[in-house]
Amino acid sequence: MNTKMLVEENNQKRKLLNKENLAYYENMLVYIRLSYSKSDIATEEVLAEMLDHLLEAQEDGKTANDVFGDNPKAYAQEIAGALPNRIPRSFLSYFLMGTLFFMGASTIFNSLFNIILYYGFNKGDAEVNVFLGSFTVKTVLFLPIAFLLVYVIIQYLRWSAFKGINKILEFFIFWLYGLLSVALFLLVIYLLPPFGAAVNLPHWEVLIIGILLGLSGWFVLKKTQ
C-alpha cells in the first residue's frame, strides 16, 4: 500500500473514533506527520498501526489515555524519533506550496496596490517595468524567505498540536505572520535597485500571474492532502 492510500484509509478510519480519542490522536498525527525529516511511508504505516490499536481499544471501552498514556507529546516524540530519516516528498510539496502561496500573495498585493493607486487616484503608471536582472536576484533572495516561512509554520504547528489553542486566535496568528512575511518580501523588492533588461507589463497582467501562482499553490496543497 502506498503513502496516498494509507492517508486516505487513515482519513476514513478516524471517523470511527469518538470525540475524545479523535482529538488525542489527531494531535499526535499532526506532530508526527510534521516531523519533516522522516520517511513518508514509514510515518503513515506507524500512524495506521496506532489508529488500528486505538480503534480496538475503543471497542473495549478504553480511551487514548489508557492506550498511549497521559503525555501524548512525549509519546509522539518517541515515535517520531524512531522513524527512519529521509526528506519526504510531503515536505518538498509543502515548501513548493508555501513558495507559490507567498509569491502569489506578494504579486497580488503589489498589483492591486498599483491598480488602486493608478485608477483610483491617478498616481503611478499603468504598467510595471520588470527588470530581468533584479527580478532574478529577488527570486533567489525569495527562496530562503519562503523556506523560512514554511519552516516556522511547521514548527508552530508541531508546538501547538497539544496546546488546545483557540482556532480564531490561531487564524489571527497565521494571518499576522503571513502579512509580515509579505511585507518583508515587498521591502526587499523596493530596496533592491532595478538593473538588467526591462519588460513592461500592465498591472492587470501581473494580477493574473499572482492569481495563477496562488491557484497553483492550492493545487499542490490538494495533491498533498
UniProtKB/TrEMBL annotation:
State the Gene3D superfamilies in the record.
c-terminal domain of poly(a) binding protein
Q: What keywords would UniProt list here? A: Membrane, Transmembrane, Transmembrane helix
Where is the chain membrane-spanning? 94-121, 171-192, 204-221
What span is annotated as the signal peptide, if there is one?
A: none
- Which superkingdom, per the lineage? Bacteria
InterPro entries referenced in this protein's UniProt entry, alphabetically = DUF1129
Concerning SUPFAM superfamilies, the annotation shows:
BH3980-like
Q: What is this protein called?
A: DUF1129 family protein
User: What organism does the UniProt record list as the source?
Assistant: Lentibacillus kapialis
What broad taxonomic lineage does this protein's source fall under? Bacteria, Bacillati, Bacillota, Bacilli, Bacillales
